Amino acid sequence: MAERKLRIGITHGDINGISYEIMIKALADPRICELCTPIVYGSNKAAGFYKRDMPDYSSFSFNVINSAAEASPKHPNIINCIEDNVRIDVGKSTVLAGHYAVAALNAALKDFQAGHIDALVTCPINKSNVQSDQFDFVGHTEYLASNFGGKTPLMFMVSDIVKVGLVTIHEPIVKVVPRITTENILEKLRMMHRSLIRDFAIRAPKIAVMSLNPHAGDCGLLGREEDEIITPAIKSAGFEGITAYGPYGADGFFAHGSYRKFDAILAMYHDQGLTPFKILSGEEGVNYTAGLDIVRTSPDHGVAYDIAGKNMADETSLRSAIYKAIDICRNRDIFDEISSNTLKTASKEHWGADESVPLDNSSESEH
């Protein structure tokens, strides 16, 4: 199958943070345009504002376009999604910056739904300043879920070293326990299993499941969730052909390197999974939203107001997010083509190569 050049939409996130710095640094790498056609949804004026303090990138420029259809495959492109008199308050959280972030995101989603881009890479937003009557979501993950069927996706942190998914995402700790149910865990295991096969081309994935309580509950001494909720979910997954093990106490599991024996880990809550992930993955980590039709990745860091405008930001995670989006799209194309061919072959074997598969008998009763 010939590889097509993918169109990767990139949203600018919070313009008062490090987004433009990392976009300019990442997209200045000529390898990006060799692999994909990048289309930034943002503001060319904002890009120019930040480039002034980046002397090593003075020759970099975006190809300004009005629509994704005009994108040049040889240059980084940008679509202006916000007003020309853009206001930038470097290193500050403002309502206007939140408005700009949502405007760019909506423009990119509209183009994805119209088939103009193949995947989405989102630069970091501030979860507080994006809140409004139109955007009442904790973050990108929840907003994307509302736009693509309403099903809660899997927040999947991925790198070449380790892959970690979460049962609960952006939840206060006091709300975590009620959401740890057998069905929720099983649903996340299904999403993770399918994503590892379809998105990451892992043929027979092995998944480790973390405990909720310290020491996996210590035989009930420190909690019953492991015996009554998590273990039944793991057993049910096994009946569905999903290879999952656990529950494991997270401290010993990561400290002793047991994560190396598995293709992915399912953690119960945010910091249980993301703390070891970020330590192990460093700047290479990527946030991937699994379980949706859209391929969406993001750097695994935040807006970093403290270093905004200082030419100190590291673009590695954004570059990795772009590469990962390309890889996932290609893996999906291959998987879907193989699945389609397998289905056609099975159909021919059942009905005969020269026979049509009957779809319905209603025509017989009409004669």
Tell me what you see in this structure.
The chain has helices at 19-27, 30-35, 44-51, 95-113, 140-147, 173-179, 182-198, 225-239, 250-255, 270-281, 316-351, 362-365, and strands at 6-11, 36-42, 63-65, 77-80, 119-122, 154-158, 163-166, 206-210, 243-248, 264-267, 286-290, 296-299. By secondary structure, the protein is of the alpha/beta class. A twelve-stranded mixed sheet has the order 3-4-2-1-5-12-11-6-7-10-8-9, with helices on both faces. Strand 11 (286-290) and strand 12 form a beta hairpin. The protein starts with 5 loop residues before the first strand and ends with a helix.
Annotation keywords:
367 residues; alpha/beta; twelve-stranded mixed β-sheet; 12 strands; 16% strand; globular
